[in-house]
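Bumping with the actual sequence this time:
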Amino acid sequence: MTALALSFLTFVSTTLGGLLALRFRDRLHHLLGFTAGVMLGVVAFDLLPEVFEMSASLGENGLRAMVALVAGFLLFHSLEKFVLVHSAHEEEYAHHAHPRVGVVSALALIGHSFMDGAGIGLAFQVSDTAGITVAIAVVAHDFCDGLNTVGLMLLHRNKTSHSLAMLLLDALAPVLGAASTLAFTLPPSVLVLYLGGFAGVLLYIGVADILPQAHSQAGPGTSLRLIGLTTLGAAVMYAVVRAAG
């Protein structure tokens, strides 16, 4: 039950992150630049080290997980190009913005948030110390998840009401994830594939979707500032992961 109680802190942090994105929507390109760095940091400093550590514990070299990463990247790329923007108008396609792209991107983050909550619950199955450490990391990085969810929705021209609905789902997802671990355990061989595949999805969203949009919306002379914000986002995630470890 401690895991469930701590998961409610992620609800608060996710909501605050999303409301910040709404408040500063006129500076969305700055938030997007930071967000891209956060996603890069999550993949490089959190997911991939976890993937290789789990692979080693299974007696593997991580190749299966890397195949899952490439599959996740290509799957989301294909989904976006051939399904989500297929019926978009030419102008919308040219600007790489369509509401359904934002919805599916946000749903991917919601799925990740659910697994964040499940991660808290599974860590508590190992020990209280592991559970508390994971919970601290999740609370810190779910603030960015809330910002990312709203940012992606607004980026792809979704209504404010729809963005708030996705934010609510994203805030609830870790709580539901933590609650779900009261009824199941996930085999490590499956979890390592999930983590690899989701790393690929996040990598695509951050590098191929968010970052180009951040630079396309920026005015003259702001590219250096955006690069700095992207670097800051990655550095923040490095600090969070180091502190949690």
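The tokens above came from a reply further down the thread. DSSP finds nine helices and no strands in the chain.
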